[in-house]
Amino acid sequence: ATYTMVDRSTCIACGACNPTAPGLFEYTEDGLSYALLDGNEGITEVPEELVEDLEDAVEGCPTDSIKMSDMPFHCQRVEAS
Ligand code: SF4
């Protein structure tokens, strides 16, 4: 299984991750990214068909803010705007 969340403390709102993985990342009004699947909780399994997009997004993030793990994350939920 694969899980993802964004470290919003290091995200610089560059806008790269949504075009790379539109099914996985969206931005709040301030431009900071969050994981769409579960409001950035990182506890919802990434669908198999989106894992490749996720790997591309992780690679493309200039600040390494997109986290990927085979274990669920536990972090603050982010409300979508
Ligand atoms: Fe933030 Fe990284 Fe996405 Fe850019 S690619 S918006 S720095 S999470």
Automatic annotation (TrEMBL):
PROSITE patterns the record matches: 4FE4S_FER_2 (PS51379)
Purpose: Ferredoxins are iron-sulfur proteins that transfer electrons in a wide variety of metabolic reactions.
4Fe-4S ferredoxin-type domain mapped to chain residues: 2-30
Official protein name in the record: Ferredoxin
InterPro entries from the UniProt entry: 3Fe4S_ferredoxin, 4Fe4S_Fe-S-bd, ET_Ferredoxin
Keywords: 4Fe-4S, Electron transport, Iron, Iron-sulfur, Metal-binding, Transport
Cofactor(s) demanded: [4Fe-4S] cluster
Pfam families named among the record's database cross-references: Fer4_13
Native species: Sporosarcina soli
